[in-house]
């Protein structure tokens, strides 16, 4: 069975003055085998470099060192990769978000456990506290990843070919651009018409 590469585009709606963010997925399987291999190589390297930064940030988080969303150049430039500096920074940003999010989840669980203990719910408190400690001490180990890319790395172009609706062009990676055909569907077209596309995609296999 052929592997499908899924692109998720986020669409913004305004409803009663509240923003609602929704996602629509389209398959990249219509690209030729060479293009799909290039996407696979991109995602494997993205996962490797993101894990590389998680390994750097995790001990810092354990010591309560503040981890910034934008990683300093003296850290990102040490990553050994064929990625461009821009793509390396994207990996670092995603790794930072993963680490900060994991630590925040741990803090929330521990805080909730402490509240339950004060309320006399000792057994539940112990279970939640244990989960919080496991989360705090368990460094994320990525098996798969959704590469979060902003519009510096991609663009959509209308296709003149009848069998495809758009071209997705991925660039600024450190290698040649990857151009993939996309077929839109009813759900995707609805969001295109009614919403406003945000300047980001999530790319996964």
Q: Can you offer a commentary on this structure?
A:
The strands form two sheets. A four-stranded antiparallel sheet has the order 2-1-7-3. A three-stranded antiparallel sheet has the order 4-5-6. The radius of gyration is 20 Å and the shape is globular. The N terminus is likely disordered. The chain is an alpha+beta fold and 205 residues long. It has five helices and seven strands; from the N terminus they run E-E-H-H-H-H-E-E-E-E-H-E. It is 45% helix and 23% strand. The two termini are 13 Å apart.
The succession of helices and strands, N to C, reads EEHHHHEEEEHE
Biggest beta sheet attributes? 4 strands, antiparallel
Overall body shape? globular
Give the N-to-C terminal Cα separation.
Answer: 13 Å
Low-confidence stretches: 1-6, 12-17
Task: Work out the strand percent.
Answer: 15-25%
Spatial extent as radius of gyration: 20 Å
Question: Which secondary structure elements does this structure contain, and how are they paired or packed?
Answer:
Layout: E1 6-15, E2 18-27, H1 33-62, H2 73-76, H3 85-118, H4 122-137, E3 147-150, E4 154-158, E5 166-170, E6 178-182, H5 186-194, E7 196-204
Antiparallel strand pairs: 1-2, 1-7, 3-7, 4-5, 5-6
Helix pairs in contact: 1-3, 3-4
Give a short synopsis of this structure:
With 205 residues, the chain is α+β, with helices and mostly antiparallel strands. The chain is built from 5 helices and 7 strands. A hairpin with a 7-residue loop joins strand 5 (166-170) and strand 6.
């Amino acid at each position: 069975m052929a592997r499908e590469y899924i692109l998720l585009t986020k669409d913004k709606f305004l409803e009663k003055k509240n923003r609602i963010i929704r996602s629509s997925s389209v398959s990249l399987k219509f690209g030729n085998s060479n293009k799909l291999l290039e996407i696979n190589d991109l995602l494997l390297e993205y996962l490797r470099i993101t894990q590389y930064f998680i390994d750097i940030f995790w001990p810092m988080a354990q010591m309560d060192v503040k981890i910034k969303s934008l990683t300093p150049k003296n850290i990102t430039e040490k990553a050994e990769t064929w990625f461009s500096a821009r793509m390396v920074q994207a990996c670092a940003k995603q790794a930072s978000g993963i680490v900060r999010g994991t630590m925040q989840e741990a803090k929330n669980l521990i805080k909730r456990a402490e509240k339950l203990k004060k309320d006399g719910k000792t057994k539940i408190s112990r279970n939640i506290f244990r989960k919080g400690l496991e989360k705090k001490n368990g460094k994320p180990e990525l098996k798969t990843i959704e590469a979060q890319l902003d519009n510096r790395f991609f663009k959509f172009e209308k296709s003149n070919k009848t069998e495809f609706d758009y071209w997705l062009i991925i660039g600024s990676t450190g290698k040649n651009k990857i151009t993939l055909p996309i077929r839109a569907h009813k759900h995707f077209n609805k969001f295109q018409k009614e919403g406003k596309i945000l300047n980001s995609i999530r790319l996964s296999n």
